[in-house]
Amino acid sequence: MEIFKEIASLKAFLKQFRQPGDSIGFVPTMGALHAGHLALVEASRKENTLTVCSIFVNPTQFNNPGDLAKYPNTLQHDVELLKKVGCDVLFCPTQTEMYPHQDHIRFDFGFLDKILEGEFRPGHFSGVGLVVSKLLNIVAPQRAYFGQKDFQQTMIVRKLVADLNLDVELKLVPIMREPDGLAMSSRNARLSADQRINALVFYKGLQKAKTLLLAGEEFENVKVEVKQFCESQPEIKLEYLALADSTNLSLIKSVTPQSILLIAGYAGEVRLIDNLMMNDEN
User: Fold this and answer.
1) Above 80 in pLDDT, residue 282?
2) Architecture of the domain whose range is 2-173
3) pLDDT given at position 281
4) Catalytic site residue 37?
5) pTM of this structure
6) Cβ atoms of residues 168 and 161 within 8 Å
7) How large is the average pLDDT for residues 251-277?
8) Catalytic one among 37, 77, 101, 124?
9) 3-class DSSP state for residue 273?
10) 32-68 as b/e, with b when 16 or more CB fall inside 10 Å?
11) Mean pLDDT score of the chain
């Protein structure tokens, strides 16, 4: 696996993979890799000549400086994991390499960055839009791979790609879960043993909401019931439970074939998100 820390050297290396018939697959991450990230790399390897993974903890998408400071850094372990799954190239730039001068660019994604994560993390998606724009420009892949767990982020990137006429195909890979159902997340490493057990209530809350909705319960009543269900566990605080149209993320009140349930909350000081497609068999 080739490892690059500088934009110029990465671009120079990738030139040899710009030939007719070649394709580059790209997996952007912030490190602290787990099986969910590796599934993205494996999906890319099946469809492309070359797979590039980036590891960069992007400061502009953290609205909470404390959250940024506590974000796990496991670069050496990440390198070993990427080698094992056959990743071809790792790009792990410094903050100075990605932001050589003060950034003044801001993105506005309309209602998409004002709801759900956008409501509770103001400025977050502007930072996501900026770093993804930079990375897609640097790597110039034919395909980019994102995990379903960050569903709203993927919708933001989809709008970014459409509005800027970027020539890249976005691929959404299903959520990877622990055996008990907890969505895999780099943040899970910060949970205590008890918090790790209690955090499973978010996935169970999604399943409960799905069952109630399919039984004909009104969504407003479902929200109340799921909030009580989740917060019955120690150190759990629910921020939101939402029902949305998965094609455009507009919030809805009744189930459709394209509905998705999204949830977010805290286990102690660790903020977690999850989602569940209403047509998912799980």
Assistant:
1) no
2) 3-Layer(aba) Sandwich (3.40)
3) 73
4) yes
5) 0.95
6) yes
7) 97
8) 37
9) strand
10) bbbebbbbbbbbbbeebebbbbbbbbbebbbeeeeee
11) 96
